[in-house]
Amino acid sequence: MKRVKIEDCVIELIQGDITEQDTxxxxxxxxxxxxxxxxxxxxxxxxxxxxxxxxxxxxxxxxPTGQAVITGAGNLKAKYVIHAVGPxxxxxxxxxxxxxESAYKNSLLKxxxxxxxxxxFPALSTGAYGYxxxxxxxxxxxxxxxxxxxxxxxxxxxxxxxxEQSYKIFEKVLNTLV
Length: 178
Description:
Elements: E1 2-6, E2 9-15, E3 25-29, H1 39-48, H2 50-59, E4 68-72, E5 80-84, H3 96-113, E6 118-121, H4 133-151, E7 156-161, H5 164-177
Parallel strand pairs: 2-7, 3-5, 3-6, 6-7
Antiparallel strand pairs: 1-2, 4-5
């Protein structure tokens, strides 16, 4: 685990399973239609149970790329799931960076809106959406650091990384930013 302080806040990097996190909110790597898919999305819906999808269907029909919506967390340890839609990586020249930045920032703004003090993120867009891991780590960490410097909240932002390679890349990038 790696921890760094940003103002009065903490960014943590851990290797693990996002569905096991006890932060107030976890972020789901959702798709625009908000229909459970594979990877992080599928795991959250399987472990959280049907109430998450039921709430999504009752409140939302769509979430544009770069945006985020919030629901309860069903059977998960967290209280909320923030469903963020990251971009599908094409060539790095099709607005992907701005859309990924926006997905992180809008997730953090949802956390502020709901007075959430701790949040766990996966590496958005790096699985099936194909965003190169190191580039995604730079966007994610830079966006979160800037947000914490501006708002001093949430007090804890945890990146829950699947696999040693993801963890090591995020750690390397974080070391260059702080």
